[in-house]
């Protein structure tokens, strides 16, 4: 805040004093800017940036004593309004405001607030009251108002005094420096590069199991669960940590030296002998890429085994050059042969034992599974929304040579984390809904990397099929698939970044009245990123959740963690559960009363597939923030029951789908708007009636 811009000495002469970065005299019609004015740089003049700064309301204090009125008399509000309007219209005021960080948008906002304050206050600050009184009486100049206007502007826009600090905080050009623990170590980086079914992860796992301590960082909770089970079966005690679940090899009091976790849950503060970062090419993901970047730059391990596609090798080399660490590359080749068939499937009547039909939406999965089962064949179903237990049960059913289930229908979720005895992969479509850098959903052909990843699941080494086959459902897609599979994975040129909790806390210190969503917007807009290596991940889902719980009284760090939850904002049930879980005072209600009120009952012949979807969504959120739930054991029991319900529902999928169709046609069941919209967009491209 400013000191008074004028001091009346005993002789009644106005003394000139420095204020707000310039010298000002009541008798002067000019002012001299000082050299410390903030140099504008790039984004600062961006109107979209200015609109992110929300003015802090300033209200007059009715208890203030009107000393100014006692000294110079009461101000005429009508004359004051004319004076303020004249002040705002002066060209010199606009220029000087611009030099102090107030562009046209902020200037207008500040003036409106300043005018309202001056007109509504019963008692203005004495220095401002005296200056305005002198101007109205002809003893002062209208420009004398500017120091007080600037003081008010900095009060409602605190960023004006800390813009340099904000820019320094959001300088993301050297993210390696965020992790002093890792920089204080000499880390050995080993890149296991190769296609699917090449044994690259196997070799890394052998080193993990033989180490004194280790951490496995995987892309899916299913993969983390698989490593957890494998490690403990091999006699290496290993804990499991995901965003939804925590399991210990023995009990919670004895933490194991080994931990298997989803990559977002990777600790960057615990030292390990060995770390595995699986599917490193996921650094390019616009939503989750930051987690792989964080793990690679920040994990404190003497030896880091990075597993992924050849296309990520150059980027990992470049990232490690910023830390001064050497990368050893070990290349692997596929262990079994993969052949692209010369003919498309054409009809679901042509499916054979060992086939996996890959779809890119739940609607297609349900439809394909229904049609195949009407042909008298059992079907295993796997998609991303299923719990790990259900996925493993379906995989076991499909892999069991004595089980009559020999057909699988799945999404690209099979591309990672499941050992499946697939003879042939059939792409039902090559069009997949994707999210672009702006967070917008698009329909696009799958990438080379995705095609190779999914097709590579056929003919897995060690299964009954020593050769894998791949084809498409539609004949017109076959040439496109052949072209995709003949190429090398696209080189990955940039890694994702995301504001850390510590950075947002620093922002909140400087901008204490801003919401978390607003802080994220300002941070991303002001951020400086090394465009040759990094990009800023999409934050739209984060902001959506932040706005949803803004009214909930939570510490900023807890609010930040909540908003990192992988919530589907299109599902009202999930959003409701997320909002309720944000209330610590409702935690006991959730854990004590939730089961009888929300837990879906076991699907019966009279029910549809809708309860399964609700069960999946509840399962995803039942383990997050366990410390808020006093009855943790009850929540774990609920999770087991949910897993059993979902498994039973998936086994009865055809009957449930038939009931769902009846419910939809009768108007008793709602359809997910997002799924419906995507389904409608695809119809022009996908297929006609190829069921026959």
TrEMBL record:
Cellular component terms (Gene Ontology): mitochondrial degradosome
GO terms of molecular function: ATP binding; hydrolase activity; RNA helicase activity
Intracellular or extracellular location(s): Mitochondrion
Keyword Mitochondrion attributed: yes
Domain Helicase C-terminal: 343-508
Cofactor: Mn(2+); Mg(2+)
Keyword Cell inner membrane: no
Reactions this protein catalyses: ATP + H2O = ADP + phosphate + H(+)
Keywords recorded for this protein, A-Z: ATP-binding, Helicase, Hydrolase, Mitochondrion, Nucleotide-binding, Transit peptide
Any Pfam family matching the protein: Helicase_C
One GO BP annotation of this record: mitochondrial RNA 3'-end processing
EC number: 3.6.4.13
Protein family membership: Belongs to the helicase family.
Name listed for the protein in its UniProt record: RNA helicase
Organism of provenance: Timema bartmani
């Amino acid at each position: 805040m400013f000191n008074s811009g004028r001091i009346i000495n005993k002789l009644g002469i106005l003394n000139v004093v420095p204020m707000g970065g310039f010298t000002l005299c009541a008798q002067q019609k000019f002012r001299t800017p000082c050299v410390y004015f903030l140099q504008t740089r790039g984004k600062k003049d961006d109107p979209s940036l200015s609109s992110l700064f929300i003015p802090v309301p300033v209200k007059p204090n009715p208890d203030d004593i009107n000393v100014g009125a006692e000294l110079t008399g009461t101000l005429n509000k009508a004359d004051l309004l004319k004076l303020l309007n004249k002040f705002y219209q002066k060209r010199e005021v606009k220029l000087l405001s611009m030099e102090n960080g107030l562009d046209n948008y902020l200037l207008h906002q500040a003036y409106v607030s300043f005018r309202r304050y001056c007109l509504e206050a019963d008692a203005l600050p004495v220095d401002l009251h005296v200056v305005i009184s002198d101007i109205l009486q002809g003893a002062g100049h209208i420009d004398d108002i500017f120091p007080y206007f600037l003081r008010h502007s900095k009060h409602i826009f605190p960023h004006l005094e800390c813009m340099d600090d904000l820019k320094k905080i959001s300088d993301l050009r050297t993210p390696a420096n965020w992790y002093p623990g890792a920089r204080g170590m000499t880390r050995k980086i080993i890149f296991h590069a190769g296609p699917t079914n090449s044994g690259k992860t196997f070799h890394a796992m052998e080193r993990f199991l033989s180490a004194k301590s280790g951490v496995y960082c995987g892309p899916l909770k299913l993969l983390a669960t698989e490593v957890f089970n494998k490690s403990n079966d091999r006699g290496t005690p290993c804990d499991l940590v995901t965003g939804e679940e925590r399991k210990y090899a023995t009990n919670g009091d004895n933490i194991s030296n080994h931990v298997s976790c989803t990559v977002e849950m990777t600790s960057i503060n615990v030292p390990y002998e060995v770390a595995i970062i699986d599917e490193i090419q996921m650094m390019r993901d616009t939503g989750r890429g930051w987690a792989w970047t964080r793990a690679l730059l920040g994990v404190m391990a003497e030896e880091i085994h990075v597993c992924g596609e050849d296309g990520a090798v150059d980027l990992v080399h470049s990232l490690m050059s910023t830390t001064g660490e050497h990368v050893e590359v070990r290349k692997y080749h596929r262990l079994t042969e993969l052949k692209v068939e010369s003919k498309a499937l054409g009809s679901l009547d042509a499916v054979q034992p060992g086939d996996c039909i890959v779809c890119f939406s739940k609607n297609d999965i349900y439809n394909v599974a229904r049609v195949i089962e009407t042909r008298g064949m059992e079907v295993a179903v796997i998609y991303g929304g299923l719990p790990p237990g259900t996925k493993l049960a379906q995989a076991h059913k499909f892999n069991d040579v004595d089980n009559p289930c020999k057909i699988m229908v799945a999404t690209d979720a099979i591309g990672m984390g499941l050992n499946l005895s697939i003879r042939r992969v059939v792409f039902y479509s090559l069009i997949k809904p994707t999210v672009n850098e702006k967070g917008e959903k698009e329909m696009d052909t799958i990438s080379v990397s995705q095609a190779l990843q999914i097709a590579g699941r056929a003919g897995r080494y060690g299964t009954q099929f020593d050769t894998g086959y791949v084809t498409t459902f539609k004949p017109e897609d076959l040439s496109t698939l052949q072209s995709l599979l003949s190429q090398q994975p696209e080189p990955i040129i940039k890694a994702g970044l995301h504001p850390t909790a510590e950075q947002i806390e620093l922002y909140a210190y400087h901008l204490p009245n801003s919401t978390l969503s607003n802080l994220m917007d300002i941070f991303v807009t002001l951020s400086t990123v090394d465009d040759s290596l990094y990009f800023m991940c999409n934050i739209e889902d984060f902001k959506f959740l932040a706005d949803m719980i803004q009214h909930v009284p939570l510490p900023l760090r807890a609010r930040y963690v909540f908003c990192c939850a992988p919530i589907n904002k299109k599902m009202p049930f999930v959003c409701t559960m997320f909002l309720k879980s944000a209330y610590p005072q409702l935690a006991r209600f959730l854990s004590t009363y939730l089961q009888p009120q929300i837990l879906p009952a076991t699907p019966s012949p009279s029910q549809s597939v809708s309860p399964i979807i609700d069960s999946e969504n509840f399962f995803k959120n039942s383990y997050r923030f366990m410390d808020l739930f006093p009855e943790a054991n009850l929540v774990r029991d609920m999770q087991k029951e949910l897993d059993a319900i979902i498994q039973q529902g998936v086994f009865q999928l055809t009957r449930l789908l038939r009931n769902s169709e009846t419910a939809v046609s009768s108007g008793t069941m709602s359809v997910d708007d997002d799924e419906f919209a995507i389904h409608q967009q695809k119809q022009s491209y996908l297929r006609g009636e190829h069921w026959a």
